[in-house]
Structure formats: C-alpha cells, structure tokens
Specification:
Layout: H1 18-30, H2 37-46, H3 54-63, E1 89-96, E2 108-114, E3 122-126, H4 131-145, E4 150-153
Parallel strand pairs: 1-4
Antiparallel strand pairs: 1-2, 2-3
Length: about 160
Amino acid sequence: MGIIHGNRGRAPATTKPEGVKQRIRQLYENVYTGFNISHFTEKLNEVEGIEVSRETVRKDLRKHGVIGEMRRAPKHRSRRERKAMVGMMLQHDTSDHDWLEGRGPKLKLIASIDDANNEVPYALFVNADGTLPNMEVMKQIMSLKGVPISFYVDGASHNKTLR
C-alpha cells in the first residue's frame, strides 16, 4: 500500500509550452548565436521577457541538437605509479622557504628525493639557487648512492638544455 502524489500524471508547473521552447531555439540560433547558455538565459529573461531557468534552456537546446555536449576540462594532474626500485628516479627541486624563521638569511634548500621510498639521499642549503649548487647536490648523491637512472626536475632555467 502507498500514497499517490496528487500531481501524478501532470506536467510540472514550470514546463514551458512547445511554442516558447521553439522561440528560444530560434533566438539562440538567429539572434544570440555564440552566447554561452548563462548569458543567453539572462538575455531571455531581461530583453525577451521569457522567464526560464538556465538548466531548462540548456537541456532543451541539447535535446534538439542546437548545442553539443559540454566539454570537461582535462585533469590537471594524473597519478603515476612510483618507481619499482630505489635509485631508479630522483625527484630534484629547490625549496625557497624561510628555514631559519627570521633568525638568519633566507636560505634555499636543494634536495632530491627517491621516488621509490621517499628517502632524501642528499640535501644542501644555499644562499642562491643556480646551476652549480644543483650540480653539487647531484654530484654528492652520485658519490654516496651511485648514478640514478633518471632525475625528475622542474622547468627552472638551470634545468633546461640550450639549443
């Protein structure tokens, strides 16, 4: 046993007549071509005097093929699997931070972290970031741990090759 709603079988009160929907489609195709749906809906409400919601407009335009599917922005970052073995890849970067909390010069920390186990094989505080300090860190890592298969670095100018 259940209760049946009184509106069962009726169209929702907000349903627009087919003539109004057709007028909206014509306006979008002929007068407001190129408008995004939000701006177009504002114009319908303010200029054309057609009170309708953005979602109603979007659904009807999609249903009739006037607009296509919305495109999703690509994912900003994607996860990748960690390297299987220690020493395969070191992530190398410089951290610009007030490490001494105002009690001394603002130093930069140049460090590499092993992708497989998060170990930091070597790190160095320096006054200024640059090619030579970064190469010194890499040299120390290679003398302590051997040569890694790869270094993963950011786009800083001292990490780029000249052509």
